Amino acid sequence: MTALGGIISGIDTSSLINAMLQQQRLPINQWQQQREAADIKISRLGDFMSKLNTLKSTLEDNFGQIGDVLSQTATSGNEDVIKVSADGDASPGNYSIDVTTLAAYEKDRSDAFSSEGAEVKAGTLQIGTGPDATNAWVDITIEEGDSLATIANKINASDAKVNASVVSDGTSSYLQLSAQESGYDVAGTADQAIRINETYTGTTGQELNLVEVSTAQNAVATVDGLAVNSRSNSLTNVLPGVTIDLVASGSTTFDVVKDKAGTKENLQAFVDAFNEVAQLLDEELDVDGEQNRDRSLTGESVIRTLQSDFATMFSGSFIPDATNPDHDDITPLSTAFDQLAEIGITRDSDGKLSLDSEALDDALDGDMVAVAELFTKGTIGVVDQVAGLVDKFADGDTGLLQTRQEALEAGQDRLDLRIERLETRLEKNQAQLERQFMQMELAMAQMNQQTGALMSMMTGPTG
Questions:
Q1: Are 104 and 249 in contact (CB under 8 A)?
Q2: What is the C-alpha separation between 383 and 377, in angstroms, rounded?
Q3: Quick check: 176 and 109 in contact, CB under 8 A?
Q4: 3-state SS record for 276-304
């Protein structure tokens, strides 16, 4: 039903109705603003969760072990003999090495064939590796008509620990097998690196007759007089954290030294990841004006609790809480350091961390391992404590930030319901007002008709 728009009364009924409804819509406008503010808060809480989980990942991925925190540098005296590298688990020192023999792969080669497409006699080729090969043979079935290239493909597709290829000298082709691992098991002998059995049942084609053309050989060296026998030319178990790659026979030395610059770079990565969170805290808790305050997290107690918890953690000692049952069986840090400030990492008035290079140098010179243990020491080190704090706030199921997000979303749902109900009520009010004004216009029209008729009767006919 549509109002007459004041045709009779002269009143702009449409504008009047709209003005009345606009006044009644004021709560909806307020609720929509509250909903938009909640959207902003939910998004910013999500930013906090993301930054916190990045901090946790940085620590767990890069600071979980002593070798992750510390950095060491290894230098070879002669890279024509050895190349050397070290990680944080290495112990500084000077070492000598004599390389006698390099590890080599066993290779076996067949008789000459006219081409890679030449037929191999049908039968079974058995391939084993190592001294226990007789208990782990891999059978390669040679079918009638299989070519030299076909057999190479079958071997490579099998579980045999060899690589097969067809090689040519320009005139003839050969099937060649190469062990996937250099050297041989020290419990066996060199000729057991690859073990082969050939059985033929076919009547056409040529037999392989594989024979050894290159003997397996283990690397032999001495490090500071200690004899080393290795299947590989890469020695990783001689010195913890040190990899020695043998290049040629000969004698040389190598040094492992503290890499302070590398360790600082590692620790700076932690500082930077934490400061991403601190920056976000500073931005949210330092706002001007009531409007900004309504749409920021400054009034959120969970954010102030987060700031307080970080301040407490990074200004205190990393020792067990005697009242916490999870820590009652853990001995406090027995190393030289139990506070980040003692290794040069301090927190400023804005909540950000900074790294004092000279203080860290002193700490590394004093006890390098203790610096790392401050991060890695079980549930009382920086890694686990920060991870636990992150989970408290940013866990996707039970974290305080997640809980607050859910509360804000629930509040939005309630606002949506209020808006929907009031919109329905306003639609009804509008219809009612339109009916009332239309009735008024109709009544006035009827009254005008009656007035006209009465006036006609009173004046009577003229003439």
A1: no
A2: 8
A3: yes
A4: HHHHHHHHHHCCCCHHHHHHCCCCCHHHH
Please report, for residues 12, 14, 250, the alpha-carbon distance to residue 7 in angstroms, rounded to integers and kept in the order given: 9, 12, 113
Q: Which residues of 316-349 are buried (b: 16+ CB within 10 A; e: fewer)?
A: eebebeeeeeebeeeeebeeebbbbebbbbbbee
Beta bridge partners of 253: 96
Task: Tell whether the torsion through CA atoms of 429, 431, 436 and 440 is positive or negative.
Answer: positive
Averaged pLDDT, 234-242: 94
Pick from 346, 275, 345: which is nearest to 52 by CA? 275
pLDDT, mean over the chain: 85
| CA separation for the pair 68, 263 (Å, rounded) | 9
On the question of pLDDT at 401 being above 70, the answer is yes
CB atoms within 10 A of CB 29: 11
CA separation (Å) from 196 to 73, 134, 379, 433?
45, 10, 54, 101
Cα–Cα distance, 53 to 60 (Å, whole number): 10
- The answer, yes or no, to whether residue 139 has pLDDT greater than 90, is yes
98 neighbors 248 (Cβ within 8 angstroms): no
Rounded Cα distance between 436 and 277, Å, is 60
- The residue with tokens 């097969």 is 164
Which region among 40-44, 375-379, 413-417 has the lowest average model confidence (pLDDT)?
375-379
- Write the CB contacts of 333 (distance below 8 Å, at least 6 apart in sequence): 317, 318, 319, 373, 374, 377, 380, 381
Question: What per-residue confidence (pLDDT) applies to 138?
Answer: 94
Q: Are strands 211-214 and 107-109 parallel, antiparallel or unpaired?
A: antiparallel
Distance separating alpha carbons of residues 347 and 270, to the nearest angstrom:
13
Q: How far apart are CA 380 and CA 383, in angstroms?
A: 8
Residue appearing with tokens 């081409």: 115
Cα dihedral sign, 447-449-450-454: positive
Q: Is 151 in contact with 123 (CB distance < 8 Å)? A: no
Q: With bands split at pLDDT 50, 70 and 90, how would you rate the model's confidence at 328?
A: very low
